[in-house]
Amino acid sequence: MTKNGKEEDPLWDRRLDKIIDDFLHLGKCDLLLDVGCGSGFWMRTLMRQLTGTSNTIGIDYDKSRILSARKGFKRRTEFVIADAQALPFKDGTFDIVTCRRLLMNVKHKDEVLGEMIRVSRFRGICSCVEPDFKNISEFSSVQKESDIYKKIESDSEADLEFGPKAASLFLKNGLQEVDVWSYCMTNKTLPPYGNVEMNRLHGSRSLEDATKKLLTNISRKEKKALMMSASKIDEERKKQIKQNKYSKIEIIPFVVTKGTKSKTTTSTYSKL
Ligand SMILES: C[S@@+](CC[C@H](N)C(=O)[O-])C[C@H]1O[C@@H](n2cnc3c(N)ncnc32)[C@H](O)[C@@H]1O
Questions:
Q1: Domain residues of the chain, as ranges?
Q2: What pLDDT score does 214 carry?
Q3: Tens of pLDDT along 51-66?
Q4: Residue 187 Cβ contacting ligand 1 at under 6 Å
Q5: Which ligand 1 atom sits nearest the alpha carbon of residue 38?
Q6: Domain covering 14-260, topology
Q7: Backbone angles phi, psi at 17, to 5 degrees
Q8: CB-CB contact of 234 with 151 (8 Å)
Q9: What is the pLDDT, as a whole number, of residue 27?
Q10: Which of 60, 98, 103, 130 to mutate to test the pocket of ligand 1 (most atoms within 8 A of CB)?
Q11: Which of 88, 78, 87, 5 is nearest to 47 (CA)?
Q12: pLDDT under 70 in the chain at which residues?
């Protein structure tokens, strides 16, 4: 629990807050934009370090996520429905323009980064936080749970290993003083489960449902077999949770990349 009695963000290690603060110079930021903010997870992390006078705006093209983000924030934050490829802001508006797990998901990365650069002020910072799921380590007390997760993840259309590639995109787009810092996010679900663990356990969708939605061209027979083993894993997981025996640890590498906009920054994106 936090000091004000609210639930901690289950996915964030608070020890990283200070490092993020130093890396992105949040203390010097008056106006920050979070692109593809979703329900505001990254914004919440950043706001813990921003000074009392700084303002933040989050944009996302998914209305339901924006509505949910609006519910969670009361002060100094505005949430706008907008496309990252056409940001509704004037050139040079923000001190920091940031995104987390956005660039890995978008097809036109140059366009999105180009827009982020356009709305940054000169000497402002553009940054992204992207994972390197190729090097994820998982342990689960339910046998083969991790194997099925890997199969589901590899089915994604996103670039799951974009984290280490972001710096080259930043350099290609003319950002200066490009710097990279990496860390591992650790999700621990170990008994006895507190509220955070219980929320995570009850909030996660069943593996059977996830395998049903697999897009990959696998044969019907293969998919049926996969769904059957997913269903068995779901059952075993439920049983272990009831008995307070289920444990899982995921170690997920993330890469934070930043660059500074200078007078000579010329994005490869033609609208600039
Ligand atoms: C994986 S979520 C990450 C959300 C949040 N940044 C976080 O770290 O928890 C990616 C988000 O990017 C949004 N998104 C993807 N493409 C977008 C685009 N072209 N314009 C605006 N938002 C976009 C999605 O709607 C989704 O909310």
A1: 14-260
A2: 72
A3: 778 899 999 999 999 9
A4: no
A5: 27
A6: Rossmann fold (3.40.50)
A7: -55, -45
A8: no
A9: 86
A10: 60
A11: 78
A12: 1-11, 215-217, 266-272
